[in-house]
Write a structure and sequence with these properties.
The structure holds three protein chains of three kinds. Chain B is mainly alpha-helical. The chains are: A mainly alpha, B mainly alpha, C alpha/beta. The complex binds adenosine-5'-diphosphate and magnesium ion.
Chain lengths: ~220, ~220, ~240
């Protein structure tokens, strides 16, 4: 093999990479927040007695979970304009990602809500706790603890999935690889460097989430 | 030139979806063989092997599949291995699948109750007999549903190979959409095809889950 | 020569001493009931006898085979010493019949037909002839436990070890399992059984071994020992179980 790897050719693009990281994190956090709201409503709809709400939530979750994110993004970005809805790439990315992750979040939250046992609420009240105290310590705390690990790994999956919106031209981290490649003609180095950057980010977030879990749920289990 | 979507356009998409299915099948088979090795390395009582497997799994699961696709697409030619989008797609997806399948199968193996080992031992079965007649049959049963479930994930993952130019269902939709200027209908159609494949697989997986006789 | 000869065994898990210098013999045909508080080492003692646990020192000889010697083929020993667990541990992926025939075919290298004949006899003996084709998860706890006993008996063991085999059962299912044990007792099977069924111990067992904190604290004829305990520990244990 006589190819010379030249990663230092990428050095002038540190600024682009940092901007890419920043946009990726912004996309991830924004999407996660919106997805949690969608997920909560969909979870409640799934559990409601209203048949229409129930079926609508089911259809939403099944439709999203059984089709690829990329096609969902294409429908939002390229398809909706033919209905007169024109979105810029960033907005289309946020909407597409949020709708996608909302479906997964709703399943996680539904499991969390179903893990709450009404008998424990009664027990809390019987022990003389106020409604607020009961809600915090026997409803909210255990439910959050139950859904936390799944939501944390959903966050990491989302962080990786945002790379797909580079195909809409959003200038997030993965798009920077395409950009640097087009400037340096160092395709392999560009994609390898960016891919490793994702690894650093995901490992960092996993460590952070474990630390938070330990601090909040392990160290003070009776909080 | 704007034209209506015709029957032959639908046929074109369906034909392209054969490549989606083929890619998913190749990845689950080749990834399955590799995944078996990953699972074994992960559970043998030899620390360096465990670390190697854990590192591999973290590397694959901690980076975007899109990045893996591009690395293989651009990387292998540098080593003098000339490959096209098809080979790069098959290779990247197989490697990716091996990490996920390895974890699924390790989980299945370890979820067979350790008491099953003991029950086998108490009857005088040798280690090998316990493994092959008692533990593995149960692990395989436990793993079928999640493996089929993962196959559905793989079908969705194949859509990303469109971005390195491999013509499967999603790439074919892009081409058709550019030719017809009917993106909503074309991508909607593609979504329906994906839905039919994935929904059948997830139903199958749920069905298999229900009829598993195994001790966890 | 006794069938089981345990000499001065010591067993610890890490820093915890679970069995402290235990010596014990069991004669052929004897029925020994092992009792004691939870954590006193009863299960560990049984598990040492068929080599599921290794001891740190001391000697165990069963039916002429030295369990504690590394040279012994432990699988061959386990063919002769049957063991039934509290949690049944049937193979859930196999029908009742195949649960029983598995070891016959693999270990004894019997033909399908010969193994099936034995399975039919043994399963009928525990009263479940109509369940040969059922999977374990289609049976009640008591039925599963009877299959587990049949599976062990099919190997024609020299002796049987039973570890709290009725403890996981609903009270109304305990009787059907004890009946199988009584039948075995009548046939003269050598048995060591950990049990909390004091009436069973009193009426069926020949001998009672009371374990306390990793030691054999009392060891004597079943009736006498249970009716007139000599040590305050056994007295307080008995009053705790009986009330
Ligand atoms: N595999 C093991 N590892 C560590 N400690 C064990 C293990 N098995 C049993 N022990 C400990 O040994 C002691 C005796 O256990 P066991 O023999 O199961 O008692 P019993 O059957 O009388 O309830 C207990 O303190 C238990 O915690
Ligand atoms: Mg015990």
């Amino acid at each position: 093999m006589n190819y010379n790897f030249r990663f230092n050719a990428l050095a002038p693009y540190t600024g682009e990479i940092l901007r890419g990281i920043s946009l990726t994190l912004q996309l991830t956090c924004l999407t996660m927040a919106i997805a949690l709201v969608i997920g909560l409503f969909m979870a409640l709809a799934r559990m409601s007695d209203n048949r229409v709400l129930n079926v609508a939530a089911r259809v939403y979750v099944e439709a999203i979970r059984n089709t690829p994110l990329l096609v969902q993004l294409f429908i939002v970005f390229f398809g909706l304009p033919s209905l007169g809805i024109r979105l810029d790439a960033y907005l289309a990315a946020v909407i597409g990602l949020s709708i996608n992750v909302g479906a997964y979040a709703s399943e996680i939250l539904r499991a969390g809500i179903q893990s709450i046992r009404p008998s424990q609420v009664e027990a809390g009240r019987a022990l003389g706790m106020t409604a607020g105290q009961t809600f915090r310590s026997v409803v909210l705390f255990p439910a959050v603890k139950a859904v936390y690990p799944a939501l944390a790994s959903q966050f990491v999956l989302l962080l990786l999935a945002t790379s797909v919106v580079s195909s809409l031209g959003v200038g997030e981290l993965f798009h920077q690889a395409t950009f640097i490649d087009s400037r340096t003609y160092r395709s392999f180095e560009s994609y390898a460097l960016i891919t490793v950057t994702y690894l650093v980010l995901t490992l960092g977030f996993r460590a952070l989430f474990s630390l938070v879990y330990w601090l909040v749920f392990v160290r003070r289990p009776r909080a | 030139m704007i034209r209506e979507l015709g029957l032959n356009d639908i046929v074109y998409l369906l034909e392209a979806s054969r490549w989606t299915v083929a890619l998913a099948l190749i990845a689950i088979l080749a990834g399955g063989v590799l995944g078996l090795i990953v699972a074994v390395l992960r559970i043998v009582s030899f620390k360096p092997a465990n670390w190697l497997a854990i590192g591999y799994i973290n590397l694959i699961q901690g980076t975007p599949l899109l990045g893996q696709l591009f690395i293989f697409f651009f990387g292998l030619p540098l080593f003098g291995i000339q490959i096209g989008a098809w080979e790069a797609a098959a290779l990247a997806l197989s490697i990716n699948a091996s990490a996920f399948l390895g974890e699924i199968w390790r989980g299945s193996l370890q979820s067979v109750s350790p008491r099953q080992w003991e029950a086998g031992a108490a009857l005088g079965l040798t280690y090998w007999q316990r493994l092959t007649s008692v533990i593995l049959p149960q692990a395989v049963r436990i793993s079928i549903a999640p493996t089929v479930g993962y196959l559905m994930q793989l079908v969705k993952d194949t859509s990303l190979t469109a971005l390195i130019g491999f013509i499967e269902l999603t790439r074919a939709s892009q081409i058709l959409s550019a030719a017809t200027f009917k993106p909503l209908q074309v991508y909607g159609l593609a979504a329906i095809v994906y839905f039919v494949i994935c929904f059948s697989l997830s139903r199958l997986s749920e069905h298999l889950e229900k009829r598993t006789h195994a001790a966890r | 020569m006794p069938l089981v000869e345990i000499t001065d065994i010591h067993k610890s898990f890490g820093k915890v001493d679970v069995l402290k210098n235990i010596s014990l013999t069991v004669e052929k045909g004897e029925i020994v009931s092992v009792i004691g508080r939870s954590g006193s080492g009863k299960s560990t003692l049984l598990r040492c006898i068929n080599g599921l646990e290794r001891v740190q020192s001391g000697r165990i000889v069963v039916d002429g085979m030295e369990v504690t010697s590394p040279a012994t083929n432990i699988n061959a020993l386990r063919e002769r010493v049957g063991m039934v667990f509290q949690s049944y541990n049937l193979f859930p992926h196999l029908t009742v019949e195949r649960n029983v025939t598995l070891a016959l075919k693999k270990v004894r290298r019997m033909s399908n037909d010969a193994a099936r004949d034995i399975a039919r006899t043994m399963v009928a003996k525990v009263g479940l002839a109509d369940k040969l084709g059922a999977y374990p998860d289609e049976l009640s706890g008591g039925q599963q436990q009877r299959v587990a006993i049949a599976r062990s008996l099919a190997m024609q063991p020299t002796m049987m070890l039973f570890d709290e085999i009725t403890s996981a059962l609903d009270p109304e299912l305990v009787g059907e399992v004890l009946k199988v044990l009584e039948e075995l007792a009548r046939e003269g099977m050598t048995m060591m059984l950990v049990t909390h069924e004091m009436n069973f111990a009193k009426n069926v067992a020949d001998r009672v071994v009371f374990m306390h904190q990793g030691n054999v604290h009392e060891d004597g004829p079943a009736r006498d020992t249970l009716i007139e305990p000599r040590t305050p520990e056994l007295r307080s244990f008995l009053s705790a179980v009986l009330h």
